[in-house]
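Try this one yourself first.
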C-alpha cells in the first residue's frame, strides 16, 4: 500500500540565517513508481530506508538501495524510479539558502557525488526526519526546526572530520578567526587548533600566504583595531585596551607606542591625517 506524508514548509519554519527548510516527507512507493524528468528550485536529498530504485541524473543511471541517499541540485534534470520487485521507501528533506553550497561542500556532496551512503542507520534517519516533519507541522520554535535540519545533515556526514582545505584556505580561516575573536585573549595555539593544524604547520602556511608569522599578524590586527577605536570613538583608553584583547595597561601602552610612535592618549589627540592611520590588514 502506498504511503505518502509530506510537508511544504511556509512562514518561519526554520527560515533563519543562511539555510532554511523547504519541505520534507516520506513515501512508500508503488512498484515502478517514477518521478521526472523534472528540475527543482531547491536542494533536495532523498534517503532510502528500505527497498531500492534507480536515480537518473547527468546522463547516468545509478541503483540506490537502503542506507544510501541521492542528491538533487537546483536546476538539475533528474528522474527516479522505484524497483518493480522491491520498491523503495524513502524520506526526503529539501532546503534552500545562501549557505547551502558551503554546507554541501563540508558534507562532501555536489555534482560529482550525488549518490552516497549516509552515515546513520535508516532507523536513526527516519526518526530525525519524523521530528523535522512534526516540528515544522506544529509551527514549533523555528530554532528547533533549524536545529533538526542540522541534525539531518550530521546524520548524512557522520563524525568523520571534514576534508582539510588547501593551504591558502587555512590561512584565510586563520585570519577570519582572528577577525572574529581578536577582542578575546586568543593565542596562536588557539588559531592553529581552530583550523585543524599544529602550530609549526600554521606558521609555514600562514607566512607564505600572508607574508608575516601568525603571531605578528595577531598583534598587528589588535593594534590596528585599537588605533581605529581611539580615532573614531569616544571610548576611554582602558575600554579600547580591553575591547582589543589586551589586559595589561603598561604592556598595551608599550606595544602601541612601539607600533605608532605615540602613546594611546597621544594618538587620540594627534592621529595621522590619512584616516587615522590606514590599516594594512
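Now uncover the answer:
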Amino acid at each position: 500500500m502506498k504511503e505518502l506524508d509530506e510537508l511544504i514548509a511556509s512562514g518561519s519554519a526554520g527560515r533563519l540565517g543562511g539555510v532554511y527548510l523547504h519541505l520534507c516527507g516520506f513515501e512508500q512507493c508503488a512498484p515502478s513508481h517514477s518521478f521526472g524528468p523534472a528540475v527543482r528550485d531547491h536542494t533536495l536529498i532523498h534517503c532510502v530506508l528500505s527497498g531500492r530504485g534507480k536515480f537518473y541524473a547527468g546522463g547516468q543511471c545509478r541503483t540506490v538501495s537502503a542506507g544510501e541517499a541521492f542528491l538533487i541540485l537546483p536546476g538539475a534534470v533528474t528522474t527516479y524510479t522505484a524497483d518493480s520487485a522491491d520498491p523503495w521507501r524513502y524520506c526526503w528533506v529539501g532546503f534552500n539558502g545562501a549557505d547551502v553550497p558551503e554546507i554541501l561542500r563540508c558534507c562532501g556532496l555536489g555534482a560529482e557525488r550525488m549518490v552516497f551512503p549516509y552515515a546513520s542507520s535508516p532507523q536513526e534517519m527516519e526518526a530525525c526526519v519524523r521530528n523535522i516533519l512534526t516540528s515544522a507541522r506544529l509551527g514549533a520554535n523555528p530554532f528547533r526546526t533549524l536545529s533538526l535540519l542540522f541534525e539531518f545533515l550530521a546524520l548524512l556526514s557522520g563524525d568523520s572530520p571534514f576534508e582539510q582545505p588547501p593551504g591558502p584556505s587555512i590561512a584565510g580561516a586563520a585570519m577570519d578567526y582572528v577577525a572574529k575573536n581578536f577582542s578575546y585573549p586568543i593565542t596562536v595555539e588557539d588559531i592553529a587548533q581552530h583550523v585543524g593544524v599544529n602550530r609549526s604547520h600554521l606558521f609555514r602556511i600562514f607566512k607564505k600566504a600572508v607574508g608575516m608569522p601568525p603571531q605578528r599578524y595577531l598583534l598587528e590586527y589588535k593594534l590596528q583595531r585599537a588605533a581605529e577605536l581611539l580615532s573614531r570613538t569616544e571610548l576611554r583608553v582602558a575600554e579600547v585596551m580591553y575591547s582589543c584583547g589586551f589586559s595589561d595597561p603598561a604592556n598595551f601602552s608599550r606595544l602601541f607606542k612601539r607600533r605608532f610612535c605615540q602613546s594611546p592618549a597621544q594618538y587620540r589627540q594627534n592621529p595621522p591625517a590619512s584616516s587615522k592611520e590606514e590599516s594594512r590588514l
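Discussion: The CA atoms of residues 33 and 82 lie 5 Å apart. The beta strands are 3-8, 20-28, 34-38, 43-50, 52-57, 60-65, 68-72, 78-82, 89-96, 115-117.
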